[in-house]
Design a protein that fits this description.
Blueprint: H1 4-14, E1 20-21, E2 24-27, E3 30-32, E4 40-41, E5 43-47, E6 50-55, H2 57-63, E7 64-65, E8 69-71, E9 76-79, E10 81-86, H3 88-94, E11 98-99, H4 106-120, E12 125-130, H5 144-149, E13 155-159, E14 164-167, H6 169-175, E15 186-191, E16 194-201, H7 204-208, H8 216-232, E17 235-243, H9 245-256, E18 263-269, H10 272-281, E19 284-285, E20 289-297, H11 327-338, E21 343-348, H12 351-365, E22 374-377, E23 393-396, H13 398-404, H14 408-416, H15 423-430, E24 434-435, H16 446-455, H17 475-481, H18 484-489, E25 507-510, E26 527-532, E27 535-536
Parallel strand pairs: 1-7, 2-8, 3-9, 10-17, 11-12, 12-13, 17-18, 18-20, 20-21, 21-22, 22-23, 23-24
Antiparallel strand pairs: 2-5, 3-4, 5-6, 9-25, 13-14, 14-16, 15-16, 19-20, 25-26, 26-27
Helix pairs in contact: 3-8, 8-9, 11-12, 13-16
Bound molecules: zinc ion.
Length: about 550
């Protein structure tokens, strides 16, 4: 602090000189630039939202004049963090739902719903985050107790992975579903000739379609709530994996009126109408919004045994999971997208889904260059399929590994698990990985992604040596996956993802040096300040 006054004096004195004026000068910092050489700088000059110089404090102080100098006293600065696969709007909407994550029993689930409804008194209760694998009785719940508590009010609560839901009778009646309702691409569970209330994958749509839509005002509030959560944790760009045209247009209008500052890479939900609309109208690119990709679903999730496997589940004989879309339709659509400039992103978890989608990609992208198509999750890969990622980007979520590691081997057995959550093997194929969280499936905090990728342990330091450590990423690889490689996966590596001259001044200031402190301390790192286009947003 004692250097601060002379520094200011010096700046004021010399500012009449022929120094260039800048909006912000950051000095005395430990800046990981994440440039090609992964170089470290200690000062940065920002003008009109862009970085115009990066180097040493002495050099920049001599060269530039500013009214705003920030001496960060040696603290660490990173490029603004990017979550390459998340549900940003969903996170906002979730703030209006019952949070069921971390429940230790179905009774606790019921209690939280009762508490929520006492306060909010909504006409349709929705919730998300239960996981029967965390309960003493590891079985899907049934709806009887919900029917007793809420005979009139519809209730629909989703499993943590979003691939199964429990509905009460009021919600089932509203959807017009009976024991005889036909379905495909998933399951409607029955017991003793009655519906249990559990819907898996595609049939969930029967219930979902009757949930009332939020108003424009509620949707705008949801986006602002989500933005605050993200900025507090250091995220400056979010790749929303599945947005409607309405949501995209709302984001665009809020960004244009200055009500929303976060940058959004929108993956458009691949409905036939959205495909027609966006393919006809072309890519949208503004300073904060980029619409150039479609999000599809290949299969379900591993936890609910919806992921499509080439051989039966190890803990459910004869059960393979299922593709949720017809492969022929997917191939035809892929051809159509390949003929445009749009990117295709498909959710694939099981080894069969990954295999079939990789083959489809290869087929339609033959002779096409630099299309950067992605597989979202790339969770269980057959050994012979890794090489197919040579020109397909793996978009992966390290916290999925440390959330699933307790039971994933039960599902797929000791051999197939070796190709599971195989982040280093995937990195070795493509040369880059795009890292994300899939929030709100996982927690938003990017420090947990960093920790999970490097340590491959949970927050209780389990398992001792780490889970399948041959697939751990280095700190440098992890940071790149959360910044420059994620930007690359968005065709945005020339404007963000590293702190270099000409790029956006999107950056975060941390209270600890993430590249140096003990890895077990990383989850406790705090983001002190967050900047987007040189503007302080936290
Ligand atoms: Zn997702």
């Amino acid at each position: 602090m004692k250097f601060f006054t002379p520094l200011l004096f010096l700046l004021v004195l010399s500012s009449c000189d022929k120094q260039e004026k800048v909006d912000l000068l950051i000095v005395n910092a430990n800046v990981y630039t994440v440039d090609d050489k992964f170089s470290i700088a200690d000062a940065m000059a920002v003008k009109e939202g862009k970085i115009i110089a990066i180097g040493s404090s002495e050099e920049l102080k001599t060269k530039y004049a500013t009214l705003k100098t920030l001496d960060v006293e040696g603290k660490t600065i990173l490029p603004g963090l990017i979550d390459a696969h998340c549900h940003f709007f969903g996170l906002g909407l979730q703030q209006q739902k019952v949070d069921l994550t971390g429940t230790k029993s179905f009774d606790e689930v019921l209690q939280r719903i009762v508490d929520f409804q006492k306060e909010k008194k909504v006409s349709y209760i929705t919730g998300r985050g239960w996981d029967q694998n965390d309960w003493e009785i590891r079985e899907f719940p049934t709806k009887e107790k919900l029917d007793e508590l809420f005979p009139e009010t519809p209730v629909s609560i989703r499993r943590i992975d979003g691939h199964a839901l429990l509905a009460n009778q009021a919600a089932i009646d509203l959807a017009g579903v009976t024991i005889n309702t036909p379905f495909s691409g998933g399951d409607i569970l029955k017991k003793g000739g009655k519906l249990t209330g559990i819907f898996i994958d595609k049939p969930m749509g029967l219930i979902d379609s009757k949930i009332p839509q939020p108003s424009t005002k509620e949707a705008a509030q949801a986006l602002k709530d989500a933005e605050k959560i993200c900025f507090d944790l250091g995220l400056t760009t979010v790749n929303d994996a599945g947005l409607s045209r309405e949501a995209i247009e709302l984001i665009d209008s809020l960004q244009k009126t200055g009500e929303l500052h976060i940058k959004v890479y929108a993956m458009v939900s691949a409905s036939p109408q959205n495909l027609d609309y966006y393919l006809n109208n072309g890519i949208i690119k503004t300073d904060r919004l980029h619409v150039r990709s479609f999000k599809f679903y290949g299969d379900g999730a591993l936890g609910s045994r919806g992921a499509a496997m080439r051989s039966p589940y190890s803990d459910s004989p004869g059960h393979f999971g299922a593709l949720v879309n017809d492969l022929e339709t997917l191939r035809t659509t892929a051809k159509r997208i390949a003929d445009s400039n749009f990117q295709m992103n498909i959710h694939a978890i099981g080894d069969s889904a990954n295999h079939l989608i990789l083959q489809t990609y290869k087929e339609v992208l033959k002779d096409k260059k630099d299309r950067r198509w992605k597989i979202e999750h790339a969770q269980i890969i057959s050994p012979e399929d890794f090489k197919l990622f040579d020109d397909i980007i793996p978009s992966i979520q390290p916290t999925h590994a440390t959330s699933d590691m307790y039971w994933a081997e039960d599902r797929v057995g000791p051999d197939r698990i070796k190709g599971g959550y195989a982040y280093k093997d995937l990195l070795n194929q493509y040369g880059k990985v795009a890292l994300g969280t899939d929030f709100p499936v996982e927690k938003v905090n990017p420090m947990l992604t960093f920790y999970a990728a490097v340590a491959r342990k949970d927050l209780d330091n389990y398992p001792k040596g780490g889970f399948q450590m041959e697939n751990a990423l280095s700190r440098e690889e992890t940071l790149k996956g959360m910044t420059i490689w994620a930007a690359y996966s968005n065709f945005e590596e020339n404007e963000k993802g590293s702190l270099e001259i000409g790029k956006s001044a999107d950056f975060v200031i941390l209270d600890q040096d993430i590249m140096e402190i003990g890895i077990e301390e990383v989850p406790m790192i705090h983001v002190l300040e967050t900047y987007v286009n040189g503007e302080k947003v936290k």
